[in-house]
Amino acid sequence: MKTEMLGMILAGGQGTRLGKLTKNIAKPAVPFGGRYRIIDFTLSNCVNSGIKNVGIVTQYQPLALNNHIGNGSSWGLDGIDSGVTILQPFSSSDGEKWFEGTAHAIYQNIAFIDQMDPQYVLILSGDHIYKMNYEAMLEEHIANNASLTVAVIEVPLKEASRFGIMNTDDNQRIIEFDEKPAEPKSNLASMGIYIFNWGRLRNVLLDSYSKDGQMLDFGKHVIPSYLEADENVYAYHFDGYWKDVGTIDSLWEANMEFIGLENALNMRDKNWRIYSKNNISPPHFITKTASVKTSLIVDGCFISGTITDSILSTGVKVKSGSTIENSVIMPGAVIGKNVQIKNAIIGENAIIGDNSVVYNENEIEVIGYSEVIGVQSDED
């Protein structure tokens, strides 16, 4: 059967600005919010928008990401007419192996897309935190008779030079695209979310790679070529919460914004759930000497210290006398006795020894995956 719209999630980025946190895993697999991984938001948006088939393009350190996604059952993508497919680089007859850009990654997977036979292709990033109805975007794409629709969000004008900026006419048709302009003409930043008419995009990519192979990136190459060819390219305005967690500061900020009943993502909305693969763990346990204030505590945690304005992910252990404030503790981390942690991110399975201090008044302190700091006693 023909697929109306196929979702393609680009999840192969290394995320070098996250430093230690992406040394051994891809950025979309980085834990978030205690119970989730970053890619869960994009995947859940697909499912909630009625997109039943999704391809996930991976490249850098994909093992943890592949294990997390599995057969897609955690998102209900394991049915007869639905599925999730992991698409990794492979050696072809022309010798190409690695994906050299976002558009090149789609070109390399034309065979998969043709197999699904979609009318539209939705291109997504796997490393943003947000909720978005892609079906509403498709409806606007069809109403505009667009060849390409680009999701945009308003950003402060002083920050616009960090983004790809779309300049539109009164009908929201994009007439100009500036990649990180020194003097931006508008504040409409591209979110890296695109809906293409597949037949047209397919021809553009095949034509390019039969000639010069210059269509490597959507922002730098494909969108400008569409505008140059006078294609119908429109902006789709998004006004909800959206966070690019590409830096340590932005990842920490997004986690801190996640705490509390009134967080902008409204995680208790039963009509738009964020799904994830969750390991079965025992209930968390808080000792009588412990104190927990305005924090998120996930299953499997053991707490004998003081937790304030923080997130403790699955299976975290905090021993007596320790204080954690304004911090994110990722799954499996063990915090020793009399430890002080403030404004920090502690990586998965890290061990913080007794009497250690993890705090830097000038920046967010980061402890890497399985990193060991100090010496820990065997006692709780």
From TrEMBL:
For the site labelled Could play a key role in the communication between the regulatory and the substrate sites, the residues are Q59, W98
Does the UniProt entry include the keyword Acyltransferase? no
Q: Does the keyword Nucleotidyltransferase apply?
A: yes
InterPro entries reported in the protein's UniProt record:
ADP-Glc_PPase, ADP_Glu_pyroP_CS, GlgC_bac, GlmU/GlgC-like_hexapep, NTP_transferase_dom, Nucleotide-diphossugar_trans, Trimer_LpxA-like_sf
Where is alpha-D-glucose 1-phosphate annotated to bind?
G164, E179, K180, S190
The residues covered by the Nucleotidyl transferase domain are: 7-257
- What positions does the domain Glucose-1-phosphate adenylyltransferase/Bifunctional protein GlmU-like C-terminal hexapeptide occupy? 289-359
Biological processes per GO annotation = glycogen biosynthetic process
Q: Which GO terms describe its molecular function?
A: ATP binding; glucose-1-phosphate adenylyltransferase activity
| EC number(s) stated in the UniProt entry for this protein | 2.7.7.27
Which Pfam families does the annotation name? Hexapep_GlmU, NTP_transferase
The UniProt function text for this chain reads: Involved in the biosynthesis of ADP-glucose, a building block required for the elongation reactions to produce glycogen. Catalyzes the reaction between ATP and alpha-D-glucose 1-phosphate (G1P) to produce pyrophosphate and ADP-Glc.
Which protein family is named in the record? Answer: Belongs to the bacterial/plant glucose-1-phosphate adenylyltransferase family.
In Swiss-Prot or TrEMBL terms, this protein is called Glucose-1-phosphate adenylyltransferase
Record organism = Enterococcus ureilyticus
